[in-house]
Predict the structure of Bifunctional NAD(P)H-hydrate repair enzyme.
Amino acid sequence: MHIVTISEMRELEAQAESRYGLTSPILMQNAGKSAADLFEAHLLPTYSLKGLKVLFLIGPGNNGGDGLVMAEHLEHAGVLISLYYWKDKKLVVAGEQQQGPDIHEALKTQIHNADYVIDALLGTGRSRPMPEDMRDLLALVKTEREQRDDLNVVAIDLPSGLNADTGEVDPGSIAANTTITLAYPKLGFFFFPGRDYIGDLAVGDIGLPDDLQPSSKTEMITGQQVHKLLPERPLNSNKGTFGKVMLLCGSLPYPGSAFLAGSSAARVGAGLVTLAVTEKMLPFYASSFHEATFAILPEEDAESFDRANALIEKLAGYKALLVGPGLGQSANTREVILQVLEHLRSLPDKERPRLVIDADGLNNLSALERWWTLLPKDTVITPHPGEMGRLSAGIKVSGGNIERLELARTKAREWQVNLVLKGSCTILANPEGKIRINWWGNPALATAGTGDVLAGMISGFLAQGMPSFDAATAAVYLHTAAADLVNEYMNIERAGLLASDLLPYIPMTLVNTEFSEL
Ligand SMILES: NC(=O)C1=CN([C@@H]2O[C@H](COP(=O)(O)OP(=O)(O)OC[C@H]3O[C@@H](n4cnc5c(N)ncnc54)[C@H](O)[C@@H]3O)[C@@H](O)[C@H]2O)[C@@H](O)CC1
Ligand SMILES: Nc1ncnc2c1ncn2[C@@H]1O[C@H](COP(=O)(O)OP(=O)(O)O)[C@@H](O)[C@H]1O
Ligand SMILES: [K+]
């Protein structure tokens, strides 16, 4: 699904009018109806609309207009509506208007009684800091919600005061429990602090014709999209149909990473997983990972040439190779990686295993000048912000802000790689400048080893013949979907997830894509 900026959204609206006669009032009718439908769908089966008390905060522009249309639909469905017009300081309850000195107290009573408050104050037309009286109004709602968690705030299009392009927020903005955004998600939703203000995200249909598409090259990854990308699983198949993955991962201080990555490759459906390990390490893996096969390499103090060659000899017939997790950063290991890269570059396209480089694979490379010139075509790299900084010659890359977006786009082009810049709202960028952002996931993932799982999943999809950018897209989405399932089924609120908990839930995430709302 496209992600739009404010100017891209305005351009679409202008085109809708000039090419299809879809004027702003028509779009607003569609927007309000769709918001009412989504509101109802999100409530069911917990509540019925009849008798539900909903207070609408109505702003001066079209966002307020959307709110009014939505209110009308909900009123017909039996909702008890009250409306507060911010500009006129006017309250309408059960059709009765109130204005004047007592309005503040009357408003507080409405907020106190409400099941839901609808934030339809400002949308994409926000052009300046909020006036104090708007901040005060939202502060009343915030205070009430702090006192009772059964008060829900639903933002129409976006939480008022959020900058839809950057994710900055006004000091008066309040976090929504749900945001019903119109037509397309806005860029600012994917960056902090904005990301924290969106709550659950629903996307309303404002009736734009299908052939009117935004010019944006930025997409939100959705379950429906991933469902279409997943490899077929024909009846007439065997393990050879689904490809072999080789992993050059794990070393003495970090043995678990090869297990996590290899299991994940198998869990997304790769036909066969092979761990390239030394004889010393073999007993550990053989006892913990029964499904794996092994390529035995010389010990780590052997000549790098011999270590690399032992791997290269086994690589024929493999469709994917993952290099890096837990590999260590000795000069000898770096040499091994360089020789393996050289071999991959020498292979014809059809015979070349597709490469994923993660963790120490990246740390080893970042020490070299123009390291990206050493990569074979179609490589996927998966840095976290620290690794990204090292790869970018020391640029400081912070966690969640919007600067990451242009950095990812620029570097994927310059390096000619499929880049997965990890973190909350992981950003994917390909060499052609296309961006995909992952909305999903939760902070329980911020624990050691989850990156190994992701890298393994990508390699498992590559083994099945998926193009590199799509393999990374599917894996990033399903990795976070698995974390959400773990939290749900293991009753984890925010912390305590182990990377290995993700493994048994990965297959369920593949199935669930068929039923995704987005
Ligand atoms: N234009 C269209 O065709 C459509 C617009 N839609 C809705 O319209 C919204 C955009 O509408 P508008 O462009 O009217 O903009 P908004 O409704 O977001 O706000 C603009 C109004 O708020 C005032 N304003 C701006 N910043 C303010 C601030 N900080 N404090 C107080 N007042 C402020 C402006 O003077 C103007 O009156 C979208 O977010 C969406 O909800 C939808 O109905 C779909 C179609
Ligand atoms: N707060 C968060 N919300 C969502 N996903 C997160 C969050 N923190 C980390 N992740 C994800 O968890 C994984 C962590 O990977 P990484 O930092 O490489 O860890 P490790 O190397 O220890 O396995 C990445 O996929 C990242 O996107
Ligand atoms: K709003």
Summary: The two ends are 9 Å apart (CA to CA). Residues 6 and 124 are 6 Å apart (CA to CA).
